[in-house]
Write a structure and sequence with these properties.
The protein is of the alpha/beta class and 280 residues long. It has a single domain (17-279), classed as Divalent-metal-dependent TIM barrel enzymes (TIM Barrel, Alpha-Beta Barrel). Helix content is 37%, strand content 13%. The protein has nine helices and nine strands. It has a nine-stranded parallel β-sheet with strand order 3-2-1-9-8-7-6-5-4. Helix 7 (200-207) packs parallel to helix 8 (232-241).
């Protein structure tokens, strides 16, 4: 039996989204949009970056018939190894300014989800970080009320980013339960789930109502499907059974020098999706 999502949607065709921070990196940034569209993607993803001209970005999307499936923001200073601001004590004003800019863009560009990156708190701030994170999310949820934009959170495994403030799906579920699935959705990354010892298909079967977005990468290796041990047939079947109609994003490191060489699986995935849609 299909589970109807909290917003009542079910049975629609999923978008396939290319994370162009991972895919098509062999190309200049502006050329990645055309490459994604040519490969059959309907959407793209990329971190919100204040150096990007919103007019240029929306022009590239429109020119190639693409949309932004979701948008991470508030990355902080990557050169210092930072991975977000939302859970960092003392950085609340910086986070709020980044959120306000991202929300303005998301509303204007029709981005459905904003993903506030939690960050890596200092060990001495670990106890305070949880309260800061929840307070920042509370403001974000309040600010998105009445807009088509919702908040998306992701558990990023300790194996990939040691010290990340939201590192397990269990912790992400607890945070979501504070606000409710209608206000905060989860992003399930198959690589991070497997790296944490979680079977992605089994987790989806039990928690599909929590999902807003899915990221696909195999484990180990974080390359394209078929290069690791994840059973993606079971993952897709679980998403279908749950009536998931959000975007399926591809955030893997291509195993080939040119991204196109790592997309051999995509036509079969698209054919399967179209077949499932016709049966729905």
């Amino acid at each position: 039996m299909r589970t109807v999502r909290p917003d009542g949607r079910h049975g629609k065709r999923n978008s396939f989204s290319a994370h162009i921070g991972y895919l098509f990196r062999e190309l200049p940034f502006a050329e990645r949009f055309a490459a994604a569209a040519a490969a059959g993607f309907d959407a793209v993803e990329h971190p919100h970056d204040d150096t990007l001209d919103p007019v240029v970005l929306t022009g590239l999307l429109a020119a190639h018939g693409l949309r932004l499936a979701q948008m991470p923001f508030a990355f902080a200073d990557a050169a210092k190894g930072e991975k977000g601001l939302a859970a960092l004590p003392g950085r609340q004003e910086e986070f709020r300014a980044a959120f306000d800019r991202a929300l303005d863009f998301a509303v204007a560009a029709g981005v459905p989800y904003l993903h506030p990156m939690a960050g890596i708190p200092r060990p001495e701030d670990a106890r305070e970080a949880e309260g800061v994170y929840l307070a920042n999310l509370h403001r974000a949820v309040e600010r998105t009320a009445g807009t088509p934009v919702k908040i998306l959170i992701e558990a990023i495994s300790a194996a990939a980013v040691p010290g990340y403030a939201l590192s397990t799906l269990e912790a992400a579920c607890r945070v979501q339960d504070v606000f409710g699935p209608g206000n905060v959705s989860l992003l399930l990354d198959t690589f991070h789930a497997a790296a944490s010892g979680v079977d992605p298909a089994a987790w989806i079967a039990a928690n599909g109502y929590r999902l807003g977005h899915v990221h696909i990468a195999d484990h180990p290796g974080r390359h394209e499907p078929g290069t690791g041990a994840i059973d993606f047939t079971a993952v897709l079947a679980a998403l279908d059974a749950q009536g998931f109609d959000g975007a399926i994003g591809f955030e893997f490191v291509p195993s080939s020098a040119a991204t196109a060489g790592s997309l051999g699986f995509l036509p079969a995935w698209r054919a399967r999706q179209d077949h499932t849609r016709r049966r729905a």
